[in-house]
Amino acid sequence: MGDQSTRGEEFEKNAEKKLNSWSFFGSKYEDAADLFDKAANFFKLAKSWDRAGSIYVKLANCHLKLESTHEAAQAFVSAAHCYKKTSTKEAISCLQQAVNMFCDIGRLSMAARYYKEIAELYESEQNIEQAIDHYEKAADFFQSEEVSTSANQCKQKVAQFAAQIEQYQKAIEIYEEIARQSLTNNLLKYGVKGHLLNAGLCQLCKGDVVAITNALERYQVDLFPL
């Protein structure tokens, strides 16, 4: 492992020298990016995750100098995946930067994917409010890209956490929305009963007998799958 770290340090040192050198156009950033990429790989082999993460951030900055936004975003994602093993906070920060870049270049499906990943990290930290916020953002982006299955998975997470913090009406509306959308999809309509059951349980938690009765009647008439 020590040998891998040593090689990583050598590549990092050479990359820094390249950045401090003088050259025409942007070639020094291209050369440095290649060296940083090699350095990061060796630090990963050495399981030196913090060092690998920091190198990927440097790699991202090289790509930004070259105006290669997509490559910079991917480097931030790589940094985040290294930091996941040591620092959730740093991982979230890198993923957020990647999301912003993917949004800038119109890669909304990629933005959705990493909003979901941020939400999962907040969930692992029991930060329910931030998890809800980022699952909602992921759902919106997936929906805009017509990736309904992924959007519904994120919405279900929002509903689950909303019920957990006693925001029952919000959870009910989400479950009903998913059920309604699923009715028109042959692959999803068989899950409608489960969504309505969850909505009904939330109605019970609210304790409003009239609302429960009205909801049950409405589910039977409007939402129950044929």
Question: What key phrases describe this protein's structure?
Answer:
Serine Threonine Protein Phosphatase 5, Tetratricopeptide repeat, membrane, TPR repeat, soluble NSF attachment protein activity, coiled coil, 0% strand, transport
Report on the structure:
- The protein is an all-alpha fold.
- It folds into three domains: 1-106, Serine Threonine Protein Phosphatase 5, Tetratricopeptide repeat (Alpha Horseshoe); 108-151; 166-226.
- The chain has eleven helices and no strands.
- It has helices at 2-19, 27-45, 49-65, 69-83, 88-104, 108-124, 128-144, 148-164, 168-182, 192-206, 209-223.
- Helix 2 (27-45) runs antiparallel to helix 3 and helix 10 runs antiparallel to helix 11.
- The protein is elongated and about 75 Å long.
